[in-house]
Amino acid sequence: MKQKIFSLLLVLTALVSLAACGGADEDGNKGVTLNVYNWGEYIDQSVLGDFEERTGIKVNYTTYASNEEMYSKIVSGAASYDVIIPSEYMIAKMIEEDLLAELDFNNIPNYALIGDEYKGLAYDPEEKYSVPYTWGTVVIVYNSAYVDEEDVADESLSLLWNEKYAGKILMFDNPRDAFALGLSKLGYSMNTNEPAQWEAAAEELIAQKPLVQAYVMDQVFDKMISEEAYVAAYYAGDAMTMMDENENLAAYVPVEGANRFFDSMCVLKTSRHKAEAEAFINFMCDTEIAVRNAEEVCYAIPQVEAFRELDEETQNDTMVYPPQEVLDRCEVFVNLPPETAQLQSDLWKKLKTTY
Fold first, then answer.
1. How many domains does the structure of the chain reveal?
2. Could you report the per-residue pLDDT of 329-346, keeping only the tens digit for each?
3. CATH number at residue 106
4. Whole-prediction pTM value?
5. Helix runs in 28-126, H state only
6. Judgement on whether residues 111 and 225 belong to the same structural domain of the protein
7. According to a count of CB atoms within 10 Å of the terminal CB, is the N or C end of the chain lower?
8. Domain of 11?
C-alpha cells in the first residue's frame, strides 16, 4: 500500500508540472485538454471532474455506440482523440494498422493493480498498447411481465427468434455482435472463417428481421426500461443498469454461448498529449476511482484492490461476475482476417438494406 501511495504521489506531482507548463491550446489558453472517446453510459461522469481538479488537465468527453462507429470516426480524420476504450478485437485491428501508441507504463504505476489474468491476452500479448478497463458478457434481457416463463426456461437464444414477441424484439445495430448471435445459435464459432457459416448466420438474421422492432445500441435503455420492447440482446453491465430501473426486467447468458468481451484504455498514436493521456489511464486505475466507476457502470472490473472493496452482493452477482462454467461457454472475439471482415460487412449491408 505504501508503494502504491508513493507511486500515486509521483504521478500527481508530475501532473502538476504538466499542468503548469502545458503550453497553449487552440484558443491560446494555458493548459491541456484531453479528448476522451468512450462508449455511451460507460463512466461515472463525476470522476472526470475529480481528474480535472487534481491535475489541471481538462477533459473533453464524447461517446460512441459501437467499436465500428469509433473506428470509422478515427480513420476518417473527422476528429482528434487522445484516449479511447475499444474492445479486444478492435484493439487488435488498430494495433495491426499502427493506430495505437505504445504506452509508457512508468506513467501508469496503477497497472500493477490489474489482475494477471487480464494481462497479456491475445489482442495485446506483449502488454504494450492497452490497460484493461472492464469486462463482461452479452446477455439476453427480457421483461418478465410480458415474456412467458416457459419461453425463458431453457435460457436460449431462441427467445430472440420467438414469433410470439414480434415487434417487441431489439437487436444489436452492429454486425460483429449481431452475427455472433446468429453463429452461436447455429453452433458455430463466433470467429469462424468459413463463408458458408457466415451465410447461414445471415439467413438466421434475415428470418429474424420481420420480428425485430429496431436495431439499436444505446437506445436499448429507453426502450426496455419504458417497456416499449420486451426482449433484447445487450451487454451485462448495461442489463444491470436497466434492471435497476425496471423491476420487471431480468437477464441470462444464453446456453448456446455468448461473447465475452474485454474493453481496454488505449492512446492513439496521433495524440499530442500522450503523457497526460497515460496519467488519465492511471487515474482510472486508482482503487477509489475504480470502485466508484464500477458501482456506476455495473461492469466487472479487472482491478483487484477495487474488486475487494466492492460490496459482497456485487462480488457474488453472477450476472456481473459469471461462474467459470458460464465463462467456459463464452467466446472472445478476434480480429477477423480481411476477407472474412469484408464478407461480414457485405452480408450486414444486404440484411439492413435489402430485406
1. 2
2. 999 999 999 999 999 999
3. 3.40.190.10
4. 0.90
5. 46-55, 67-76, 88-96
6. no
7. N
8. 2-133+261-315
